[in-house]
Amino acid sequence: MQQITEQQILALAPNPTAAGNGRKIAQKGGFVRLEKSADDTFYLGECTGSGKSNYITTADFIDAKAPVFRCSCPSRQFPCKHSLALLYEMMGKKTFQVCEIPEDILKKREKKQARVQKASDPAAKKAPSKTSKAARTKKIKKQLEGLDLAEKLVHDFVKAGIGTMGGTALDTYKQLSKQLGDYYLPGPQRLLNRLILEIEAFQKDAQESHYEGAIEVLEKFWSLVKKSKGYLKEKLEKDDPAQDDNLLYEELGGIWKLSELEDLGRSKPDARLLQLSFWSYYEEARKEYIDTGCWADLDTGEISLTYNYRPVKALKYVKQDDTVFGVAEISKAVYYPGDGNPRVRWDGGQIRPIGPEDMEKLRSFAAVDLQAEAKAAKNYLKNAMSSPVLFRLIAYEQIGRTQEGLVLQTKNGQNILLGDLPGMEETIHRISMLPDERLFKDQVLLGGFYYSPNDRRLRLKPLSILTESDVIRLLY
Q1: Is the confidence at residue 125, as pLDDT, over 70?
Q2: Under 8 Å between Cβ of 328 and 8
Q3: Mean of the pLDDT values across residues 115-128?
Q4: What is the CA radius of gyration of the chain?
């Protein structure tokens, strides 16, 4: 029988309520028939429901890392509560009678296999049509027009001086923000919205910190505009408007398909990723909630991030991500362009428990030269286009308290102040609450390097402590 854990069920469920309802169905004996195929790839359950007829729900595990669920109920949730209830029955090791795989399931498998083979066949991939090339060229020209407007805005803002923020009329900026959307520039549009928010906040409370916030946004905005203009002009000159793995494509607001990233060679087969931290926050400039998972590759120690964007206007349609306690075994992980901690995505996958060998392997990747890591972080963070934080695994001898605050020290005597990154949930106070003194010595920290805006020095944001047997999360 397929090995099912509650963690897998919760990861598959569209929301916690659906998982809870599925558990209740299983607990109350809602199934009057349970069957499975002899090869253990197909499961079927007949479940009583509110309709006149019982519901037939099935789970197809021909690809165990990406099971397919089907149900005759009218629910629009996927998987529905009946499918989840079937998984709970499997987890509970209930008795399933052996059955033949239905003919319609076999046909669907054949069609899916044919699609997979076609997609993997280089000869089957069509070259871009002249029409699509012309459309991309037209879009690039439109984007360049919008970037010219954005460039003029920056010139006017700087010419007026940052000190005029208190009297800045925002109507023009808000109108330009709407226009940037029409120019296919959602990336610069979000940055302009952040600038508007800083100006509005300053006009309300007159706090000088908003000057620094506005300057930071302007630097990134200006850098994005200048680099993007050069990037787009070069594509026109070379008559090559096709997508490439340049980071600017996404920064301008482009949306990658997994297949496109795979075509660019940005995939890794048979990946094993362990989630070390998780947090959610609301970004006003995007009008979105963003669920962020911080993952470590068990083969390389590389730290990557998953992002789940939930627009305010579509909250009821987008499932919220949740913490994953376990190792995700993925047939193919796909990575986005960019330095630092790249974004990673995948379809399907299985979650298994964390073993001591996983922790031993992961801890072996932890950096012991803090000075070298800090230097690399500084080089990364000084780029205006970079993320404001760089996550790394650091092996430490001890974490102690000084007059300045908590300090991490390595075995070679190098040290760095720990701190809370503005905009992220605080974790410093949680370190002080840890009950086991052994966690403060000879462990590994998942931390994020960042520049503290108060004292303008590099600090380390603590997220998790990795022991020989477990991950102690400060953000989860």
Answers
A1: no
A2: no
A3: 61
A4: 26
Phi, psi of 187, rounded to the nearest 5 degrees: -65, -60
Distance in angstroms (rounded) separating the CA atoms of residues 319 and 24? 21
Distance of alpha carbon 225 from alpha carbon 439, whole angstroms: 46
Q: b/e for 4-41, b at 16 or more Cβ within 10 A?
A: bbebbbbbbbbeeebbebbbebbeeebbeebebbeeeb
CA–CA distance, 271 with 244 (Å, rounded to integer): 24
Q: What is the pTM of this model?
A: 0.77
Which is more confidently placed, 458 or 14? 458
State how beta strands 350-352 and 327-335 pair: antiparallel
Distance CA 155, CA 214 (A): 14
Query: What's phi and psi for 448, nearest 5 deg?
Result: -115, 120
Do β-strands 97-99 and 31-37 pair in parallel, antiparallel, or remain unpaired?
Answer: parallel
Give the DSSP H or E segment for 254.
none
* Structure-token pair, residue 100: 């033949």
Contact 16, 81 (CB under 8 A): no
User: How far apart (Å, rounded) are the C-alpha atoms in residues 138 and 401?
Assistant: 59
Distance CA 123, CA 118 (A): 9
Q: Helix 81-91 vs helix 16-27: angle between axes, to the nearest 10 degrees?
A: 60
Tokens for 57? 């729900």
3-state SS assignment for residue 255: coil
8-state DSSP, 412: T
Distance CA 293, CA 280 (A): 9
Tell whether the torsion through CA atoms of 296, 300, 302 and 307 is positive or negative: negative
Average pLDDT over residues 23-43: 93
Distance, in Å, from the CA atom of 363 to the CA atom of 468, rounded to the nearest integer, reads 8
DSSP H/E element including 267: strand 267-283
User: DSSP states of 327-386 as a string?
Assistant: EEEEEEEEE-S-SSS-BEE-S--EEE---HHHHHHHHHT-BS-HHHHHHHHHHHHTSTTS
Contacts of 227 (CB under 8 A, 6+ apart): 248, 385
Q: Identify any residues that bridge with 334 across adjacent strands, giving them in sequence order.
A: 267, 345
Nearest CA to 365 out of 345, 391, 346, 388 is that of 391
Distance, in Å, from the CA atom of 121 to the CA atom of 399, rounded to the nearest integer, reads 54
In this structure, are strands 441-451 and 415-417 parallel, antiparallel, or unpaired? Answer: unpaired
List the structure tokens of 325.
Answer: 């306690």
- Cα distance between residue 320 and residue 278, in whole Å: 12
* Residues sharing a CB contact under 8 Å with residue 66, sequence separation 6 or more, in sequence order: 331, 347, 348, 349
